[in-house]
Amino acid sequence: MNDAVPEQHEVSRRSVLGVAGAAGAGLAFGATPAAAEEVSAQEPRRQGGTMIGVPFQRRSAVRVALIGLGNRGGAMIDLYLAVPGVKVVALCDPVRAKAERAAAKVTAAGQPAPAVYVHGDHDYEQLLKRGDIDFAHVATPWDSHFEIAKSALLNGVHVGVECPIALQLDQLWDLVNLSERTRRHCMQLENCCYGRNEMRVLRMAHAGKFGDLLHGAGAYIHDLRGLMFDPAYYEGPWRRLWHTRLRGDLYPNHGFGPVANYMDLNRGDRAVSIVSVGSPSLGLAQYRTANMPAGDPSWKETYIESDRTISLVQTAKGRVIRLEHDVSTPHPYSRINSLGGTKGLFEDYPERIYIEPDHKNDEWGDFSKYAEWDHWLWKEHANPPGGHGGMDYMLVFRLMQCMRLGLVPDFDVYDAATWTSPVPLSNLSIKQRGMPQRIPDFTRGEWKKSRPGMDSEKPAEV
What we know:
This protein is of the alpha/beta class. The chain has 16 helices and 14 strands. The chain has an eight-stranded mixed β-sheet. It has a six-stranded parallel β-sheet with strand order 3-2-1-4-5-6, sandwiched between helices. A hairpin with a 4-residue loop joins strand 9 and strand 10. The longest helix is centred in the last third of the chain and has 15 residues. The protein is globular.
């Protein structure tokens, strides 16, 4: 049982919705350049206290619900069941077979049978009203992320959302405002921030091994053509259809999140502007011609998403971050993951390092020799279970640890909004032929204060 005093709603659902609607009036994909500039030039007035530094309430066990049990959610449930002190109490997916398969995993792990919600795309609303859920993990198609996260906050539930957390700037502001008003955390579940290389580079950067930081780069370069045209992989064509709707960086978080951590964005520096350009959109159409039979529904689609989107983000301290997105052309998987400063740099894919005074003669060094800089999570869990090289487990373990021990989470709603803002803003920049777009200050000035982030100290388990 959860031994903590129940966290109380501090405002009514009606009052929160009214505030969010007024303060979140903002930017949609169809906004005119003049309107976009006007909206992005100001931050709405805060209606609740900041969520920076707000700890979770301590509890003996974390009661978790998973919403969306496809490829991602169906795999993540195994990790929640592997972490001590976690109870999976409810599951939701409109495909009954997926929910029942996940429920069988829960009982096989020795936990009571979870409640199952399978009545349509909006049955999550009933799940979130239960009153016995501490945390909801959202792993549904992108266009549902915002509404589910909003519903969780309004029902007093901390929520974590797979990438991207929302798709429009006004939605990001709504989630910031709702998190502040409801006093519940709303987080982007960015697993790549917990990669072993990323956490090692983070600690080295904070120790000054790269000198004064100047530039970084991150990306999502992953050939998804076969999967996007595979009717058995995604539940319908929802991911491919985004390539018919939006031209820009559809998935910036995996690249942006780690570099933002290296540079302490929202913790002494912040992202202030973005410029984006996009290549022609040819890859998906050519793949379709070569692989899809006549009469396939995909032949009715017109692809507009740039095969390669490249963005440059500038920070308040003048640093530069390059972001790239490409899922439509042949390319080995890469998140680029680079960081450079006045003493040298690190580059990933393949991993390599060059820093003074350790290296010279323009010859790359062996990054494996810097294992002493591994984060305590990787020293404690050298061979974690789960996919993506163990980073998924690290994310779940650390988040559940923070909730059990009553700690401040490693990242918050302001990070979620910042890391996702390139989705709508890159679209606007490309529409305006590479014009810079201002990235809002979602912290409303709090970014100027240094504070802890993912470079955490190992807590005492008491």
